[in-house]
Fold these 2 entries.
Entry 1:
Amino acid sequence: MLNVAVLGKWHVHAWGYANETNTSKIAKVSAVWDADACRGKAWAEELKAEFIPELDEVLARKDIDAVIVGNETTAHFEVINKAALAGKHIFTEKALAPKLSECRIIRESVIKSGKNFVISYPHLGRPLIKFAKKLVDDGVLGKICTVRSRVAHNGVSGNWLPEYWFEEKDAAGGSMMDLGCHPMYLISYFGGKPVRVSGLFNAPFGSKVDENAVATVEFENGTIGIAETGFISKDSPNSFEIYGSEGCMTATSESNIRLSSTKIADIPAYIKENLPSESPSPLSVFLNACANGEKTPAELGIDAACALTELLESAYISDRENRIVTIK
């Protein structure tokens, strides 16, 4: 049985990760740490786990095999880097850290540790994204020119996100730093190396952080990516579009995929035959790999995590300084 420590309940997904761990049959939450001792103690009691008040004490425990990081985004650097230096397997909520300089230090520590690292990029496992990747790999769409991804909800306009979610000192940003991670890593997955980034953010409902955001990215191969997100969109589908010289695919769900291509005669049959199943969750991939002594996939790894922060940081600089950011 894999012994896991959960580090922080600040993130809204932290409870879900703990529950998934305890129902996995291969791992259990053995310990809890939180910078907020009252919150941590209450959560530890709920999980029937040991509360350990000091982070260094948790990480020094030989009986803790892995950690799940769910604390404040701005504190990720300290917590994740310490966990890597302590030789723990690491699963973290996105983003890895707000600054690329911090991510590079974490990366060195993770590589030196030789342990597994997984960041939560669940949309990569969606059937429609896996299908789009197959289309690209098989050349069905020709040369890719544009990738667009939108992930948004009404957490602000619907008034259901917690107030602490809008504290920049903890969250490091707003909708783009949180929900916007998903479209950002998706366009990066298809685009590759970025060379120019622009960001345009605003807060029409008056939050202290961005509520509505769009980033555009030019990639080295000529593809342009568009990442859209927000906290003020009611019933917005998680839409994905990819356009190429020989065809395009647009989708708002796995049951609503539109494909055109000069290379395929029977489009409906092709979709039906090639639509893959959904992948296990990133946390499930992580726990199984750690329990079985296997390596985790690169698309959920440390380099992919660093690539996301590079886009996020550049987009925020672009919006703040009203300019296009060039990446060398």
Entry 2:
Amino acid sequence: MADFNSLVNDFKALGIKPGMSLLTHSSLRRVGPVEGGADTVIDALLEVLGPEGTLMMSTVGGNVNPDQPVFDVQNTPCTVGTLANVFRKREGVIRSLHPVHSICAFGPKAKFFTEGHIDINTPWSPDSPYGKLMRNGGHILFLGTNFTCNTCIHALEIEARVPGLHTKNTSELYIHDYDGNVRTIQHHWHSPKKDYFVDMEHVVEAAGGLKWGKVGLGFSRLVDAEILRATVLPILKETPELVIMRRSDNDFIWEP
């Protein structure tokens, strides 16, 4: 069974360093049993990042949809696993206000990464948390998981202006913010598609942007987000079919 000390050693061996801005996607099932559970994993990550580091986690909410359009930033659970749900409830953690694609953050850059998420054109625009991460020396930890959950690639799809990935029609969503105010946005949903995000792992690795390592019982990946952007964005601009396959005749581009 993994414990605090073994996780700290595993994270250091993977390449996590003090001061990093680190976005985490996770599967605790693949990490295996941990003494103290999710809180121990979070404590170990914060220990390695140190006081100058910023820890982030995707808190995507699949439970906000056209039939349930209400998002409460403090109470709506995310649908991407136990670790993120434990993290979002910690004191001092800030959650961005996007109702479908929020992140949570803790550390000196938490406000920088989370602020303004509700006000930009798409949840993945350059000024989104995902766009900021790839432009400000950030890293992504795939803890026991892989590129199937690489939300930053959605930001690259937007930047590359790939057509047909989102519906032309929108839903009005309602956001209860930290001050008790209710705000609204119009949200375009994903069109049917199949992705090949995992195929991009070896491309990013070949460019020096991905390191593999064992954490607990499973493999994890640490990705340099700037190299991810530099490597995958040209592919999406020139040959998007290597990354995604559209399954509709929709040609809408969600970017002005």
